[in-house]
Amino acid sequence: MKSNDNKVLSPWIYELQRTRPVSEIQNHSTAQIAIIGGGISGVLTAELLLQKTDKTVIICEAKQIAHGATGHNAGQLTTYFERSIQSIIAEFGPEMTYSSLHEIEHSINTLILLKEQYHLDVPIYQFEGYTGIQSKEQMLYFIEQETSRRQAGLTPWTMMATRDFLDECGLDSTLYNFIEITEQQIILDLLESSNRDFKAVIAEQKGCTNSARFTEELAAQLLKMFPGRFSIYENSPITEINCMEVVTITTHNTMTITCEEVVLCTNGFENFTINSNRTKDINTAFHRSIRGLIGYMGAYTDHPADRATAISYLTNTTDPEDYYYLTRRPLRMDNNTTHNLISVGGPDKALEEILEYNHTQEFEEPVRSSIESFLKKNYRAASEVDFEFSFLWHGLMGFTPNQIRTVGRDRVEPRLLYNFGCNGVGILPAVVSAPRIAAIINREILLPHIFDVK
Fold first, then answer.
1. What gap in Å lies between CA 153 and CA 99, rounded to an integer?
2. Distance separating alpha carbons of residues 51 and 14, to the nearest angstrom
3. Rounded distance, CA 280 to CA 262, Å?
4. In the chain, what are the helix, strand and coil shares in percent, each to the nearest 5?
5. pTM for the whole thing?
6. Which of 264, 295, 374, 452 sits in a 20 to 30 Å window from 426, CA-based?
7. What element of type H or E holds 197?
């Protein structure tokens, strides 16, 4: 087993094989579209704009491509929203909920097509993933979720439970013909666990990939394919966006980017000033309403033997939305050996002020211990061996007020567009939101979507 010297380096950044130099903005520049933020949202937005329009595009990134939230996540390709499906239906109606969620749940196919189209090397894994249930409160919540999914016309999940557990919960199995009765050992084998508190499981299609590597490889290909239309400036944080007669973006070194429209593909926090000649206040309340959450993750390696997987374990018996998640996939180490990488996340902390966050801050010991204790108790392979974390990292997530991504033009200043709000699940929603931005800039008519700016 290998210990990573930099204890706050994520495995996704570790795995990057970047060869192109960092290009910091050094001169005043002009483009038709400026994208602020070089994560997966920003690069996918650039790709669609370059392919679907004839416009020139600049990405301006405060750090390096994919080194923000895109390089500090858990690597899962999941469609789980941090709110119930029934609440989404209540807010948007069944038709819009179906069309929006169906698009997100099939967006992994778009990632695979992009990988093939641009000849990217990054692996993308697809498989059946699992969620473990151990309490009545959790079971009732996910029965409501599955009932709502079916009412909306979405692809059903597979739910399995022991008969004793259904009796314990006071549930008549004849009322829920979508629940398959099975033995507990089958459930534990699917969860790869020996914790007999788990008595039910949900199976659904999931996946995993290195989103940082995907984003960097795609960015490099776009630079080669569109040399006259596409530029990336890294280590170039911006200080101000002025939407006056023209849109002018000012960077930290007083360089400017002049453009027609600007797209914010950030985490939702604005460490810069936005001004407009149309209003003195561009919806300040909206910009200040983004809630920050730091997610903590750890990973260790073992010898390769198992398929890629993603498993969630509901460990808080009274809160069905509180869970740990585990992803396993191959990782090539710097000694040219390949191991299983077992990554786990779950602990988080609310962040009141974005300026307080530093992604290089080391782990606190109680957080590391909680991840290790979870693994030892719930993941069968971890309970059988002594392991040392090879990676400990954390990432900042931006949660919008309704916990759904925000995509579209500002209601007051239409030259300002948004594509942000990962809400804990950022990769696949970014695949859906990028073509909407391109279509909006192209002045195309779009069907209503749950992502639309409110």
1. 9
2. 30
3. 18
4. 30, 30, 40
5. 0.94
6. 374
7. none
